[in-house]
Amino acid sequence: LWWIKFKMEYFEKILENALFLLIVINPVSKILIINSLIGEGKQFIKNISVKSSYTGLIILIIFAVGGNFILRNIFRINIYSLQIAGGIILFLFGLNALLKGGFGIDETKDKEEIAMITLASMIAGPGTITATISLSAVYGVISVCISIILAVFINFILMIYSIEIGKLLGKNLLGPLVRLTGFFISSIGMNMAFTGIKEFLK
Can you give the pLDDT of all 202 residues of the chain as single tens digits? Predict the structure, then answer.
């Protein structure tokens, strides 16, 4: 029965990595932004959710598959450098949410810019890309790609139902939830940066 145990451990790790990536992707921030677009209608929300999720998924899978090659052969960057830089970015991003109760995003921009911010900063941002490359190096490309698909899919569902979730939670709960998410993101960033420093000192 060793192979059953191996399969269970394999799927557990996929779920753990998916949860880790989901925290870094940070669905709470998208719920806040999409709730600011409630006047644009459900079709608009669906369109930007599909577009940002699809593009973000492609970018993350590209980095999961060829991230190490891209870093080392094109940009000449070691993985620990990316871990340190990405960790610092994540830490500051989370700290901003923890202290200010927001993610530093201007919600008065036009529709296209909001879609691009959602894509670039929150689905396939520097922290998520760093996490993707780091996880691929440890757990393998196939495992991490499955985790990415799960994380982005869950995030997509939450984006689609952001208005309903916002109404359910209300502003009184969304605020503390943003700060709590910021705390977790800062902690993940610190851990990622320290991992990079340890690799550098080896």
Answer: 656 666 788 889 999 999 999 988 888 777 777 776 666 678 878 888 888 888 889 999 999 998 878 877 887 887 788 778 878 877 887 787 778 765 555 544 555 565 566 555 678 877 788 889 888 988 889 999 999 999 999 999 998 988 888 788 776 776 777 778 778 778 878 888 888 898 888 8
Q: How far apart are CA 111 and CA 116, in angstroms?
A: 9
Report the C-alpha gap between 81 and 116 in whole angstroms: 26
pTM of the full structure: 0.74
Report the alpha-carbon angle 85-18-63, nearest 5. Answer: 50
What is the number of other CB atoms lying within 10 angstroms of the CB of residue 115?
A: 18
How far is residue 167's CA from residue 35's CA, in Å, rounded to a whole number?
A: 9
What long-range pairs does 65-73 form, CB within 8 A, spacing at least 24? 65/136, 65/141, 65/145, 67/129, 67/132, 67/133, 67/136, 68/133, 68/136, 68/137, 71/133
